[in-house]
Each structure stands twice: as C-alpha cells, then as structure tokens.
Amino acid sequence: MTPITVVEGRRIALSNLHKVLYPETGFTKGEVLHYYATVAEPLLAHIHNRPVSFLRYPDGPDGQLFFTKNPPPGTPDWVKTSPVPRSEDPSAEQVLIADMPTLMWAANLVVEFHVHQWTADSPAIADRLILDLDPGAPATIVECCAAALWLRDRLAADGLHAYPKTSGAKGLHLSAPLEPTPSARVSAYAKKLAQEAERELPGLVVHRMAKALRPGKVFVDHSQNAAAKTTAAPYTLRARARPTVSAPLSWAEVEACANPSDLVFLADDIPPRLARDGDLFAPLTDPEQAGALP
C-alpha cells in the first residue's frame, strides 16, 4: 500500500521509500525526499517562479533517464503551471515549484531540477547569466577553478558579480545576477566572454563544444543563456553514481581547490554547510545585487 503524507494540507502519495537509488552509497528514495525537505528553503528561493524541467531517474542513475519539460502524467490539479513559449509547441506549459507540497510531489518522482535564467512573469528576459565550465579529460574541476577565477575577475571588470557552484557532475557553474535583459543579448555577451577567455587562456579554455578541441581543456559553455535552455538548479541532486549535489561554493573554496575530491558534495554534506555558511547563492535572489550588461 502506497503511504500517504499530508504536507501543508496537501495529500501526497509517496512510493518505494526504501528503494535504493544510489547503490554505491545505499542512498534510498526516502533519503532523497528527506534531503529535499531539509534544503527546501534555499532551493525554493532559487527556483521560485521559474518553469522547471525534470530529469527523472526513478530507478536510480543506472536506470532509465528521461528529460521532461511538460507536466508529467498524473500531475495534481493543485500544482501550478506556467505557459512557456516554444517554437514547436506554442501552447506548452511547465511546472512551477511554488511550495513545499509541490516540492515533495516532484521529489517523489525522483528528479533533478533544471530551470531557465528567466521567470514565468518575463519569458526570455533573463535576470541571471550562467557559464557552465565543463572539463575535458584529463582536465578536472581543478582546471575549471582556474578558468573560473579568470572569468570572475573579467565579469567584475564589467560590474558583474559572479557566484560559483559545483555542477554536481564534473564541472562548475558561474552565475551572475542581472538587471532584466533579453536572453538573446545575454547569450551574445556570454559567447563574447567565452571567446575572450579562450584568447587569453589558450592552453586552458575552449569556447566551442567540438569534442576534438576539448581534451585537457575547459569548455566554457555559454549556450545555456539561450531562452529555451535550462541549467541544474542550486541544491538539486544529480543522477550520478553517488547522491552528488549542485552545491554553492565560496570563492575561497574555488581558490583552494587542488584535487577534484575537494569539491564533491553529497546530500549529507549540504545541511551542515547551510548551517555554517548560510545560502552562498543568496545574492542571486536579491534585486539590489543585479548588474547591468555593458
């Protein structure tokens, strides 16, 4: 019998709570739900009013993975959705994770949360810039940190303040809060920045995705600023061998990184980090921190 829980007055069916989703660590679906409940406050702040895409992995990272933008079948009628303009489907909608009941319903599907750089109120008008730093083997997150420090200083020269987080996979994400700006303009600026990084750091950075260019270098992926793209949200779990998290970092941690293991954070690591440091990504939710593109 599927247990029913009541969250803020909403009845939610929770299934397979003892199912092991991450065999390497024995992390169960119940622990996934507990993790998301524990980090709900900062996670909800960062995905507030942002249409969400889900990467679902109901049988764990070694099972079937499928990415969905549309509300899944069986979505409760109390779950909020928002129109999302798409060229292939002008009537498309996506889920908004507006509260704890919706978060727990979505977490029960076993998901990564991915969001746009704009809110539902202003489609394709970005309030965040994102740079995804992806290492090509044998490069690791250590090389990503070196590239991130250059990008931090370059963004600062344009009056933009960057905040780092792990991707939860191999690399780093840099985010900068923006005054509302058309996504196309943010994309053009991000591409120009990635090209400049490649010119200044030719032995370290590439700005094109071609695999032949990437061994031993850091691909600065600027494309996720496009209005249609989404990026893993802060604090989301990732579908990896272990329950890794896309974890906000301090710049001191980036500067000190000497080994890839230095910046691997699992679900159990995040509550103590929040208790000690607070939400290191909090400035991204503060309109007063937003900068203007040059």
Automatic annotation (TrEMBL):
InterPro entries: LigD_pol_dom, MtLigD_Pol-like, NHEJ_LigD
Record domain DNA ligase D polymerase: where: 28-281
Keyword Ligase: yes
One Pfam family named in its UniProt record: LigD_Prim-Pol
GO molecular function: ligase activity
Lineage: Bacteria, Bacillati, Actinomycetota, Actinomycetes, Kitasatosporales
Protein name: ATP-dependent DNA ligase
Keyword terms: Ligase
